[in-house]
User: Fold these one by one.
Assistant:
Number 1:
Amino acid sequence: MRLTDFLDKGASLGPDAPCLTMGGHSRSYAEVQRLSWVIGQALARSGIQPGDKVAVLSANDPVAFSCVFGIARAGAVWCPVNPRNEAAENRALLDLFDCACLIFQGSFAPLVARIAPELPKVTTLVCLGQVAGVPGAVAFDDWVDGLPGQPWQADPVDDLAMIAGTGGTTGQPKGVLLTGHNIETMTALTLMGYPFEGRPVYLALAPLTHAAGVLCFPVMTLGGEIVIMPAPDLAEFLSLIGQHQVTHAFLPPTLIYLLLDQPGLAAADLGSLQCLWYGAAPMSAARLEQAIRVLGPVMGQLFGQTEAPMMISSMAPKDHFRADGTLATDRFASAGRPGPLVTVAIMDEQGRLLPAGQRGEIVVRGPLVMAGYYKDPAGSADAGRHGWHHTGDIGYLDSGNYLYIVDRAKDMIITGGFNVYSAEVEQALMAHPGVLDCAVVGLPDDKWGEKVTAVVQAHPGQDVPADDLRAFVRQRLGGVKAPKHVEVWPDLPRSRVGKVLKNEVRSRLLGPAPGDGR
């Protein structure tokens, strides 16, 4: 299945229905479809061949997202580029992916001007707006000028749909090869696993280069409307839900925590919401319970990674409740259950599958799993050893087949000979009413080998003494897992998608190395 099939399916259900909306202006399915035909022809006219790599560098924007479908029309491969990346990181990704064309929003012209001379493989530069200061770039309107808005599509060379960069928080980014079959599987799992009543309206606040973007595809198959926010604004987010009668949205946990503290939340019209997806990082069980009580029975979890997008496991809104209607709080720390098209198991270091309740690495099989890493056969083989995709996450499956993620393999702390999983300590800390967010890491210690160390971000105006936090965790988890050291910071370092950067937390805690000049 090609990415264009999602758009074309929506158009078949109503070509005049709104497809992409921003700032009060809507483009219909027919208009987006025509634009995708024109973009595909423009790429071909520029010499882009089926199988070539085309990058899009833009904030959330309807024309930029329409380019995704134009790239697919041309049989080319979409390479989303995070607009929050630094210039050097974007240059490295564009070079790694062998991009032949870069389509960029005008506000990024200074960045493109800096990196373009170092990208000899990029032969076509297209600016969404007026070109300013980028030699060789062409304005989008000039680029598509004279091309007919008629059905057009090139034949692809294979099923490769996109190359997505990994987060890069634990090392050099890799190019994840995602096929049309991968995206089709993710879409099917989404439609099977969550409530969709009527024609959905999806509100995209998070970057369309990441989870918010691929969640558009299942919405399109139902002819739904996608309301795009150009920049994060939680007050505007609440307003748009009522204004457009939004049925679905996605937020990472940190933004949900901030949403719960929004002064206008109590007065907001949220009656249209069917599902508010949360994912991309673990969510506090205590804050999840608060979200359900405040926002309603609409919370829907998804767990995935770039290599197996979005739907390794899921927990629909109804799964947050028991049969008698009470909150199933015992499940709130889980990542839900694997879907019908995904097989999930727990594996030890020798490649043996473990029974329910035992902890090991979470491994995955099925059509959701990537085709491999771009130009990295060794990395692909390592990720797929023993015939399973290795997620790098440590967890277990319970007797009800609910998946619990206890840590990243790299983040496990060994203190006094005991394994301590940082995610478990973080969940305990997040239950404290004064804690907005936190990170737990292991630091070298002469006595313990590693000492459990926590950094906490408090709610604005809250006082959270370190001694109180240590006692709070000790009461819940015992002395071994309780942090030996706690610090309170005004904010935590985060990646461009909002994940806490534990490497940066650890680096700050350790301080400058002797002789490094800082």
Note: The first helix runs from residue 3 to 12.
Number 2:
Amino acid sequence: MLFRLSEIYKSYSAHDILRGLTFQINPNEKVGLVGRNGAGKTTAFRLITGEETPDEGDIVKINNLKLGLLEQHVDFSEDETVHTAALSAFKRIHDIEAEMRRLEIEMAENFSDEILNQYAELQTEFEHADGFSYTARAESILLGLGFSKENWETKTKNLSGGQKNRLGLARLLLSGTDILLLDEPTNHLDVNAVEWLESFLQSYDKTFVIISHDRYFLDRVCNRIIEIENGKAASYNGNYSKFLIEREERREIQRRAFENQQTMIAKNEDFIRRNIAGQKTKMAKSRRNMLERIERIEAVTADKAQGNFVLKKIERAGNQVLTVEDLAIGYGEKVLAKGISFSLLRGECLGVIGGNGTGKTTFLKTVLGDIREVSGKIIWGAKTDIGYYSQQLEELNENNEIIVELRRVAPLAENGQLRGFLARFLFVGDDVFKKVGTLSGGEKGRLALAKLIYSNKNVLVLDEPTNHLDIPSREALESALEAYEGTIITVSHDRYFLDKVSTQILSFEENGAVEIFDGDYSQYHEEKEKREALARKNANNGKELARGATPETSEPKIEEKPKVDNLSKNQRQQIENRIKQIEKEIPALEEKMSHLTSQMSVPEIAADHAKLLEVNKQFDQTEKQVQSLYAEWEKLLEN
């Protein structure tokens, strides 16, 4: 165990956030912390770091646990550069280096065994802290998170808020903490930087807990999901996709158990009513006592409604909605991208991806006619009626009330009709009279979507529509867009969202080139990885040829394995016996691993560091045995 939260209660004013929250984080776990906006995820982080204290409950941590928290707003010293800010994570190494330099000077003037021993100890500590490679590691992380070498000498005071958050993430990844607490780490990253972070975390050898709405990211980096709902935590093994399946299975079991218990309670209450004063009074009282003692199963209820984004019926456009021919986009003489050609039919969805500054939003504004194309053609089909959703939400009037803002797209609608529609987006009662300027980012996003949907457009142009939405709201929007009969063009960094809705991918590359691909994001990404792997292979073959090696043929030689027919009857029998033996040993060892995992959560063991280390050691040894047996089993099956 690294830390454990037990029966945590936390309220703000009269609002209960956490109501018995309990979960434990163990060594080497990769955890995703999920839940709707306001469920208490960030509150849990603040409790773990000690920034806040619980109203009730206990938080237990192992001694000297070093926590690293990625905060939403990061500050740096005014005189720091991007490069020095990243290297500031290595303060201890810098201190060791300075002391070693001091001792070197002292030894040159007055050599002694004592000074030499001090120097040797510092040198050992320097090596253990990766003192010889820390600069290279820092620069690799800066490049991965989108800071080119040209930006390394930029003063941190001149960075944007998003750049500061990325630099804060770089510094944290270099800090060498025991556990990373990452609150929305992908928020200010483009697709390339997110993919780099995924690769980094996949090979990260310590523990992290991530709050994120990026489901694709959670799928690729997490091996455990903790969901906070109704102020409590439920833990699931596996990534986000497995969590969705297991959660539905658990909920179905709970639904059946609740219904069966309610049926049993109703029958017994009916029996009690009919017999409490009759000949079966004793039996009726016994059943009443039984009902008072039983633990009631809770009904399956979601934490809170997440909105109903079902789109209205629309007027059909022509079959050919949009044709783009050899389009170049940019501002004046500055060309951001060129060679863009594609056709979009009615009912299709074009997903637009690319790094920051590659031209995605410029492309949207160009096809909308807000910016003139540099060259090429944009041809809209017949009967197209276009609605635009901006990630900046500038279409909203901050001074309007919510209901007045919706009326802008439906001037003749009655108040009751508008209020009913707004209720589907969680604006109920007097909420509809709130000023737009007082709303949170998520609320503004829902209002902007409400306006767009109510306007009844048959073409939707969406710029990062999921940016301000939590996961349940994103799922509701995806369901609506999947059922939408119109045509969609959407810029998004939410790859899970793109997999749900897109039929084509338009990718903007760093060099101004573009690529069009028929399919969703995962299909595009898989195809891209295959091409890059082939390019690397061809490059390596070229290097081998330059050194005079024989080129690989299109059909590489495959080393033939001995066939079963080449083995004696006795050898075949020995192999079959060993396979059967392994197939018995593996389940027993896996059961032992499951038992050891359960032991880690036992309070008596979790509180005793020595016992916990012993259980953890047994788990690692058993896991290695299982891996070794699987490897042997696979090899034997090949014979």
Note: Residues 240-275 form the longest helix (36 residues).
Number 3:
Amino acid sequence: MIFMEKTIVRLVRIYSVLFSCLALAYAGRAQSISNVPIHGNTQMDAQYYQNDPAIGAPEVPEQMLFNGFTNFTYEQDNFSAGLRYEAYLDPILGYDARYEGNGIPYRYLTYRNNELEVTAGNFYDQFGMGMALRAYNEWGLGFDNSIDGLRIKYQPVRGVSFKGLVGKQRDFWTKGVGIVRGADAEWNLNEFFNPDTARKSQWIIGGSFVSKFQADEDPTYILPQNVATGGGRLSYARGGFTAYGEYVFKSGDPSTSNNFIFKDGQAMFVNLGYTQKGLGITASTKWLDNMSFRSDRYASVNSLLINYMPAITKNHTYLLAAFYPYATQLNGEFGAQAEVFYHLPKDLSFAGPYGTDFTFNYSRTQAIDKQPITSGVDTALGYTTNLFSIGQEIYYEDFNVTIDRKVNKKLRTILTYMYQNYNKDQIEGRVGFGHVYSNILILETQYKITPKKSLRTELQVLITEQDQGSWGVALIEYSIAPHWFVAAFDQYNYGNPIPAKQLHYYTGQVGYTRGANRVTIGYGRQRAGILCVGGVCRQVPSASGVTLSVTSSF
């Protein structure tokens, strides 16, 4: 009891310090708390909108919109505490309007020792690769499904760890109605049996169980109030070879996402890799069926997702390469990806004085085979399918080749060719658009003028006869290390079938970095499209005006 009383008093003091620090920071007197073991980071994004009917930009009555957050973390001895203040005044276009407002939606207290860690409040976590549970935050997508509750981590012996958690998920400024409960165990055989001996083979075994409870108040259906998912995983490594596999099963979960069918769901993911000097090979495959798992059966889009199904496609960073990104199809998909990296050594005359790097990547995702159930007692299941069954319809296909060559001490060139097949109807939930077939060519050059000054350029072209037609991009960026950069680029929709829409989307940016502080200001047009990270996406509308971004850590 004495220990608990002291613990409670200490936690109260920690929260008092945190709130005091927040008040002092906003009063402009943060230097007075420099001796307190507190750190954090902040980001503020503002956008001033101007009328631009030519690109279909919506009118913004506020003229300026703002998103921002500040994290504070306090750590001392075995205790830590944190909070995050967020403000959406009002949310920048493309973010869900339900974020409007400001407050502290994330706060926690944690105690840890050599074996035990206990967290009360909000937390993020992941079991395995996340197919059973993944709570995380992606600021650029406006995605946050943190859990507010209790979590315990326990490591009784080296190589064995357990997790247990219970709570409700964040739903913008409130919490979802469902209760999430989960347990995870992981066993590292090498650490357990021979912790001080290096072995050629490394084995890790894990398993997860996650359930949700939501009361059945539906006037039409008799719905399961408890839905569970469970699975196992295996990781193996030896020399340059790695292998990972995970399988999860989900009980019947009728919801808005699957049109209230009672069928169970399952998913499997396998990844293989091999590396040696100058060579890297990876191959992965994924099969999933009916795996939308949310703490509210009526939620949709990105709201209240408990699990995470990664997209087996390459994450592209170039503007036109990411023009048509892939979004994971939770109701069913089969995907495969392979990538080969090879370094051509400089010993070969045509490889250049520094050698040349080649990367080949191919990914494809398509439907799974579903056989509808149209009569009998099983019609509520909707359809039948078999593990690793593959349908005929292609959702996404991407083949790309990159040649990266350092020509001399100052010049580097990167040449990329891509072919993409994008099923616009399936991925974006549209009707009548069909597939977009595109060929993309990108040339990037990096030139080091002096040790601190550099110039980077990009020339990109996307050629297609579908959707908005062909695009071109020209970019130039000048950097003065370690503080300044200036960039300008133009996206030109020269192939739009409607001449009035053959528009330029020009943008200019200036950025300044000093220590942990970075300020970026830009002006120009933003084209409408989709922004995706790891298969999770949000719509981005057309816009024109000034953008300002400030990031800092302390």
Note: Residues 1-33 have pLDDT under 50 and may be disordered.
